[in-house]
Amino acid sequence: MERHTAPVELRHEHFRQIYLSERSRRESIRSSIGTPVAAISFSVFALGNLASRFDASRLAEPTSLAIAVAACASVVALLGAVYQVVMVEWLFVHHEPPRLASLVEAERRMRAECGEEGVALGMVELMTASYSIAFEQYLWGNTVSARSRTWALRLVLLSLMFLAFGFLLLPFQQVG
Amino acid sequence: MGWFRRILSRQRRSGVFGPVPAWGRPRLRDACRRLSDQEEAMRELFGLPVAPRLMLADEELAVLIDAEERRAIEGDG
Q1: For residue A9, which phi and psi values (nearest 5 degrees)?
Q2: Cα A113 to the chain's mean position, in Å?
Q3: Which among A63, A78, A99, A120 is least buried, having the fewest CB atoms inside 10 angstroms?
Q4: With contacts defined as CB-CB under 8 Å, which chain B residues touch A137?
Q5: CB count, 10 Å around CB of A115?
Q6: Quick check: bond before B19 cis, omega within 30?
Q7: Distance between CA B21 and CA B50 in Å, rounded?
Q8: CA of A124, closest CA in chain B: separation in Å?
Q9: B10 to chain A: which residues are within 8 Å by CB?
Q10: Residue ranges per structural domain of chain A
């Protein structure tokens, strides 16, 4: 015999699943910050290397000036990347389903208002509503965090490009 | 000081759904139209009385776009 899932069960299972997957996505976003952080560390090291080879006494020369500008732009992009990495986890609020005590209290009130036959349906819908709210909040929070993570990566790449440009010009300063 | 308060609370001025700012709408228009076409194709395929109404999460703007907002974006152009 074919079994049809009741719409109320379908809604409940749907929102439970997408809530759980969005919650685990939170952890993947958190763990993926490691990539931009490692790139920031490398950029800082590379900036130090560039600075130690740079001859500041020749700043009036166009090549030296271009290296200095590239290094400054790299630092600015790097600071932007650091800001975005901080914002990934900035004030993130987790949204979780109700506590057991709240559910028991809700069950008691439903029993009083709707009778015994309405309790099961009411409780399923209450949980569905909780999962739905938590899912939307998680989805939005994760979207904000993912945006910051993406921008952190973009800014680190920009910083590395400026650094590469600086290193490219460095031999011309040393030869000149 | 609204921007400062939003940084301290990590909340948008208008809640988690829309509105999409005017400068971000042209970029999303094609995506919204393609999604509507796909929804309509699925409705016909399964003979559904209503089409699926998907939600978009735009990562560039950090905004969630519901089906009504999508229709509004489609109608802009």
Answers
A1: -70, -40
A2: 44
A3: A99
A4: 16
A5: 9
A6: yes
A7: 29
A8: 23
A9: 90-93, 141, 144
A10: 34-175
Measured between CA atoms, the residue of chain A closest to residue B10 is A91
A146–chain B nearest CA distance, Å: 7
Cβ of B64 within 8 Å of Cβ of A150? The answer is no
pLDDT in tens, B5-55: 767 776 666 677 878 888 989 999 999 999 999 999 999 999 999 999 999
Residues in CB range of B48: below 8 A, 6 or more apart: B42
Per the CB < 8 Å rule, is A143 touching B59?
yes
- Shortest distance between the Cα of B58 and any Cα of chain A, in A, equals 7
- Residues paired with residue B17 on neighbouring β-strands, in sequence order: B64
Whether pLDDT at A176 is above 60? no
Instruction: Please tell me whether the interface predicted TM-score (ipTM) of this complex is above 0.90.
Output: no
Q: Which residues of A123-139 are buried (b: 16+ CB within 10 A; e: fewer)?
A: bbebbbebbbebbbbbb
Phi, psi for B15 (deg, rounded to 5): 85, -175
Strand partners, B56: B65
